[in-house]
Design goal:
The complex is a heterotrimer of chains A (307), B (249) and C (324). Chain A is mainly alpha-helical. Chain A has helices at residues 3-34, 41-59, 62-83, 93-115, 142-164, 166-176, 178-183, 188-211, 221-235, 240-266, 271-296, and strands at residues 131-134, 138-141. Chain A has one domain (3-218). Chain A has a two-stranded antiparallel sheet with strand order 1-2. Chain A starts with a helix and ends in an 11-residue tail after the last helix. With 249 residues, chain B is α/β, with parallel strands linked by helices. Helices cover 37% and strands 24% of the residues of chain B. Helices cover 73% and strands 1% of the residues of chain C. Chain C is built from 13 helices and 2 strands, in the order αααααβααααβαααα. Chain C has helices spanning 4-25, 29-54, 63-82, 96-118, 123-143, 169-192, 194-204, 206-211, 216-242, 252-265, 272-290, 294-308, 312-318; strands spanning 153-154, 244-245. The longest helix of chain C is centred in the C-terminal third of the chain and has 27 residues, at 216-242. Chain C is globular and about 55 Å long. The model of chain C has no long low-confidence stretch (mean pLDDT 90). Chains in contact: A-C, B-C. Chain A binds chain C through residues 31, 37, 84, 87, 93-95, 97-99, 101-106, 108-110, 112-113, 222, 226, 229-230, 232-233, 237, 276, 279-280, 283-284, 287-288, 290-291, 294-295, 298-300, and chain C through 52, 58, 60, 117, 120-121, 123-125, 127-129, 131-133, 135-136, 139-140, 142-145, 252, 256, 259-260, 263, 267, 293, 295-296, 298-300, 302-303, 306-307, 310.
Amino acid sequence: MTLALALEQLLNGIQLGVMLFLMAAGLTLIFGVMGLINLAHGSLYMVGAFACAAVAAWTGSFWLGLIASLACAAAAGAIVELAVIRRLYDRDHLDQVLATFALILIFSEGTRWLFGDFPLYLDIPALLQGVVTLPGDASYPVYRLAIIAVGALIALGLYLLIGKTRLGMRIRAGESDREMIGALGVDIRTLYTLVFALGSALAGLAGALVGALQSVQVGMGEPVLILAFVVIVIGGIGSIKGALYGALLVGVTDTLGRFLLPQLLALFVDPSQAGMIGGAMASMLIYVVMAVILAVKPRGLFPPAHA
Amino acid sequence: MAEPVLQIDNLVKTFGALRATDGVSIDLRPGEIHALIGPNGAGKSTLIHQICGTVRPDSGTIRFAGEDIGALNTAERAQKGLGRTFQVSSLAPEFSALRNVMLAVQAKQGSSFGFFKPVMQDRSLVDPAMAILERVGLADRARLPAAELSHGERRQLEIAMALALQSKAFLLDEPMAGMGPEGSKRLTGFLDALRREAPILLVEHDMDAVFALADRISVLVYGKVIATGTVDEIRSNPTVRTAYLGDHA
Amino acid sequence: MLTRENTVNLVLALLLLVAPLAANAFGQPFYVTLATRIAILALAALGLNLALGLGGLVSFGHAAFFGIGGYAAGILSSHALSYEPMMFGLPGTVQMPVIWIVAVIAAGLVALAIGAISLRTSGVYFIMITLAFAQMVYYFAISWPAYGGEDGLSILVRNQFPGTNTMKPLSFFLVCYGVLLAGIALFALIRASRFGAALQAARQNETRVATVGIHPYRIRLTGFVISAMITSLAGALYADLNRFVSPSMLSWHMSGELIVLIILGGTGRLFGPLAGAALYVAFEFALGGLTERWQFFLGLILLGVVLFARGGLLGLLAGKAKHG
């Protein structure tokens, strides 16, 4: 266990955390403002990835692809909100779960229809290729550092947006009292569409960024979605601050867990067994952490104060 | 004088900077109707919540039938004999009036872990429930879903459920709210008779009902009890007049 | 009492019995298998309906129990067939009744643990937490190589049920059908009982239940555990049907599917799960024959049902539910 290795894993954890934050921020914002649980969020992640890969392949530019991913995901989100989600705000959570589950099916099969069953590939742009040397003589991909930087910027951007702009004020007011802001003349419907589109764009961005690291395929959003749920449950549903802390906690715990647990177990059992058992335990680790946190704080670490 | 059924000593509850309950001490004696009045925001609801167990006080004690119930949750306090009704009717809307009361009867009888006997054929549940519905005047509406009952009927149903629990004390939160003059008169008559079964702590805004029913009145303002006494004492109390009654008395 | 709903229920039950009998007579075992699949999925959804329809507990993790039942069947069977004892030297078994008991107990214990934590939350939290716990079980199953890991576990020979040859499709169907009927009867009994009254009241108004002196948490936990046990039994049957335990039985798609089955048929209705399972398998079969992208259309239909036909098939056929 060297410093280099530990540092690398830690950075990987932060990078995963940052990706999860992009997903979780959208999810928690949508829930906080509209009271809606959205299972189709993972599909928007996928849409962003596919848009980026398709446009990048077509134009040869990752950057154009990135813009496309934001635009497509936001547009898809807006369309879905106008056509379907609007009708769900007053329904109970069961209906919302089912309807958004139906959307997952529609998005997944629709994407398969358009793009076929095989994954698409997205290359890391030339500007961000290569590695950087870290303390301890480790080399770490520039691209991953760039992702971390993007995440930090977005977190800052969201903080400024929500805390310092009028739109942010309306969002915060909407979180506290939905009916009231309507009475005050704020156009709720547009606000909701905007919030949904914003959350979708963030998810799409996450998908596009990760698409260059892994492949772009149907269903890629689902494992991430579930992790994002764990994040917002830990952080407190409706809290962006909670989403940030939760995402970093989950990202780092998961990555370090997968790295350390087999090693730890190898001290007690033989290495091949340790690998298997350690792997199994590592997969369960975040859920155990979630269970422990919930046992003590059933509404997460930073539950929003309103009813 | 007999021991109070409900004894609240120095109850304090703060929400941030707001002292919703500021050292409240009141008691409820057997056979009496003790009315709790006060302007909106005085902390009446918070007080009720603390007595029932939905809100934990910061300090102070609540004794019910001689026992400190501070550590018990809502269900446990109900089992001890604390019956309450709600300011906004809280019923099982899909169940009929009969099934709602049967639920209370079932709870009173002890165990809800019976899996095999259909309740609608269980006379030990149906009969007492129908009897209570007769008593409150809802017998002919027994089979209607609670959601379809009128406002006044829902009030009656709530009281029926509290009766089914054979409560040792009743906590009624604005039972007259939303009732027309006919309904209020009937309910007033009903509560008058009810006090003989168990004392009633009555939170109310309807001053006619309060003055007609109350043995004692406590006035709550900004979380503090500023006066306790008989109807006449309260009506002539100058502090109360300025704080609350205005031109009423 | 022959209400409209009871009539529909009777017809559904008879159809499910008669169709495979006829198929068998005409030498079409495929349709018998299809009917068996309907019966098993109906049982799985029936279990969930106890928690969801009666109790209002939107569990997005019931696949965990479905999978536990399946793995119980697979593990016990593989140990019996290979003559290797399991942990603590216990032998495996190929007897379905024993497998069912193990499946039910295992699921009950896991549900107790999951429920104890999850039921301290409510609303969206509950939905996500049950989802997360099911994922935990899923990852555990795929990382445990001894029982197939990601590839799943085969059941080489279908397990046995005393008095019949389960390898014959019709015989196995009748076993499953019998279990389904027993499950429906149990559901009906529970729904009409004191416990059922408390559970349904807790769904409608938790505060009211506490106010009469019933602990909502205890009622819900019990309901959750019973519900898990029924779904697990279905899982054991499912594994035997396919002679294969797939980790996908534990996936959240499966959890979603179970909820879909209930909604398609009608939430809280006695025969809702059966109607829903029949519709679902019919869609899968009919649409699947037309296009590989049938799930796209399933999604559209589901969306339509949620937005416009909230009462499900039984809502359409039998009108509004009566509660009494």
